[in-house]
Specification:
This protein is α/β, with parallel strands linked by helices. The chain has two domains: about 40 residues, no CATH class; about 100 residues, Nucleotidyltransferase, domain 5, CATH 3.30.420. It has four helices and seven strands, in the order ββαβββαβαβα. A five-stranded mixed beta sheet has the order 5-4-3-6-7, covered by helices on one side. Strands 1-2 form a two-stranded antiparallel ribbon. It starts with a strand and ends with a helix. The relative contact order is 0.14.
């Protein structure tokens, strides 16, 4: 491992010893430790939300869901969420109601809309995040939909007529 080299000097002084250390075993030990920690450590799995998205179709949809067979949630700024069951002509500031992300409140709203739906087979939840919404609120909303056990939902951009009413409500 270590090698001692004697050097003799003239003049009756003491002999100086040079020590040379062989680093090969240390490198081997470092690689063994590195491999040990790599194999024994567990990597965290990323949390992924599974979204079942339909295949892209070249034909536009022929059937309309209808206002009463769907509920639309608009995710806004400052942890605010609004919902409605209206079309472009009927949506007013009074028709855009606000709630919070409490799973009981959202589940109750979804359940009430589902019970009032004329055709429960095509009842759909539509989530529309605004540009000011944050990712946490979107994930909370998707969790609430999962808790309500409704499998038909969609994610869409907010329509200009909805955005106009939304902006009037948050002012």
């Amino acid at each position: 491992m270590a090698e001692v080299i004697n050097q003799e000097k003239s003049g009756g002084k003491q002999k100086k010893k040079n020590v040379k250390i062989d680093m090969t075993p240390m490198v081997d030990l470092n690689f063994l430790l590195l491999m040990f920690f790599m194999f024994t450590s567990s990597f965290s799995k990323p949390n992924v939300m599974d979204l079942g998205l339909p295949a892209k179709s070249t034909h536009p949809p022929t059937n309309q869901i209808g206002d009463k067979n769907q509920i639309t949630f608009i995710i806004g700024e400052n942890n605010r969420i609004f919902y409605h069951q209206s079309n472009e002509k009927d949506l007013t500031e009074a028709g855009l109601k606000e709630t919070d992300y409490n799973s009981l409140n959202v589940s109750k709203i979804i359940s009430e809309a589902y019970q009032k739906a004329p055709n429960k087979d095509i009842f759909t939840i539509i989530v529309k995040p605004t540009d000011d919404a944050n990712y946490k609120n979107f994930v909370d909303m998707m969790d609430n939909i999962s808790i309500s056990k409704k499998e038909r939902y969609g994610i869409s951009d907010i329509k200009p007529w909805e955005k106009k009413v939304y902006e009037n409500v948050i002012k």
